[in-house]
Design goal:
Blueprint: H1 15-22, H2 25-33, H3 48-54, H4 58-66, H5 81-84, H6 88-101, E1 141-146, E2 154-157, E3 166-168, H7 169-176, H8 181-188, E4 196-200, H9 201-207, E5 208-212, E6 227-232, H10 235-240, E7 244-249
Antiparallel strand pairs: 1-7, 2-5, 3-6, 4-6
Helix pairs in contact: 1-2, 1-3, 3-4
Amino acid sequence: MDHNPSPRDNAGYTPLHEACSRGHLDIVRLLLMYGANVSDSAHSGIRPLHEAVENGFTEIIRLLLSYGADPLLATYSGHTPMSLANDPETKALMQNHLADIQGNSSTSWEFASTRDESDPLLLNTDLLKDIPPPESLEPEETEVEYSEMCTPNLYQLLGEPHTDRWVLFQEIGPILKVKTRESLIKQLGQSHRNDFRDLKMTDFYDMAKCCTLLGVGDNILNPKAHKVTLVKYTDKVRSLLNIDTFVISGR
């Protein structure tokens, strides 16, 4: 809204005063949404809440109160919103609101139970009976790998089983002092010839996720390279790297 939502007439009344006095709920909502002051006072001290209460527009009253209208402010002639309430519904609304803000509400909160006490499946049932004691719970275990050698980073590939992990030949080669795939196959054995994957560099960045940072670091890749070679991280690879595995129990 490019215009002031609260222009005043000669008596100090704003559009919000008029909408509240005539029961135009949608207009009241729009004016408040666009910044109309809920507490604007006319020259006589009348505020929008006084107008809504005097005319019994309960939905507008609720809306004004939700925007922070003060239910205790009086007009310059001494009329509070409560004193202007003419019908039982409006009086009850104002009384309950005043009791709430003063901490004297006589209306108790009621919560629906999720448990039906008459349900035959719950009668004579101890819901805590089968909870295992803390000492019977399975402890968490963490597998840790250790080697005195410099160890490579481990990668998982998108779309591959999460149990399959891979190392970069560019990382493992210098550690094992091999420069070619055939040299590494000689150390691994011919049965591991299929444990290699060649990927374009762009595919590697799209598919690979470093799942364990062991020690080599992340500056091993040549940014000018067009492809990378991955080696499956098998027990044989762990053996060549002198990696020991041990389990730390959470107990």
